[in-house]
Amino acid sequence: YQAKRDRTGVEVYESKRDSNTPDRLGLLGDLRRALDAQEVELHYQPKVRFDGQVAGLEALVRWVHPERGKVPPDEFIAIAESSGLMPHLTEYVLETALGQVAQWRSQGLYVPVAVNVSPRDVHTPGFAGSVAARLARHGVPAGALQLEITEHVLLEDPQRAADTLAGLTGHGVKMSLDDFGTGYSSLVHLRRLPVSELKIDRSFVARLAFDVEDAEIVRCTVDLAHSLGLLVVAEGVEDDETWERLRDLGCDAVQGWLVAAAMPAEETTAWLRARGSRGWQRPRAALPAAE
Ligand code: C2E
Ligand code: MG
Ligand code: MG
Ligand code: MG
């Protein structure tokens, strides 16, 4: 395999050079073992409203391979999906996230957590019931869990997907539509999916402050979502100017490195405590020097 080092000096597994089967199989076996050994971690990234209040956290899976270093989630999620390991990974993520939510609640931190689920999960028989049972086992109310899905859930057997999603929302779990705008015929999907939140994909947010067309796409998406009664979250907000544009366009919440990158659980606890009831405050832009 090929590895390069990222800015922090940790090796990053590079996928493009080794899509050969034995290697993928090796990685798959390693992932299976890592899940059993609980070596896969969750990091949490805040979603904040424009008044600074923390709207929730998104759980993002992190895997540091003992020899290869950090393996990007996109990479091993694709492997898990094409191999049948996905339900196992999702169980692990849900179990870890709900355990963490329960712990935070016992410490007086009532913050909802969003978990990403793959189309594979939504098509697993009994998925809605197993999520409800897991919530009950952890003593976590359904309203403290959100599931992020993508339009891809409708590609195969849309009726089954719709039934599962209806089951989940019936239990009180909130659904969020992730990466909105990158899929195929988004408007139809928006009507068919029982979601209460829409996340505008980073690819539209990134150049929002410079690109007139991206700004128009975001404006229309926000208006459309609001007219359907959905909350809108922008992902990948990295700078002040983008924050201000999104606020002016009426977006409800943002996520991105401007606020915080995904952090390990302990760091997240400290982050939440430090913000207290005031929420996150945007660092003041540098003021011109006084005369
Ligand atoms: P996503 O759910 O759309 O997550 C957003 C991705 O953008 C995350 O990448 C996050 O770290 C990154 N990000 C957040 N803020 C910024 C920013 O300001 N700038 C930039 N450039 N990037 C930002 P990550 O953690 O690498 O995850 C990639 C994708 O992997 C996720 O996209 C999600 O689709 C998938 N994923 C992650 N964890 C899980 C999981 O537990 N289960 C499943 N099924 N998929 C997961
Ligand atoms: Mg997501
Ligand atoms: Mg996304
Ligand atoms: Mg994404």
Automatic annotation (TrEMBL):
<feature type="domain" description="EAL">
    <location>
        <begin position="24"/>
        <end position="276"/>
    </location>
</feature>
<protein>
    <submittedName>
        <fullName>Cyclic Di-GMP phosphodiesterase RmdB</fullName>
    </submittedName>
</protein>
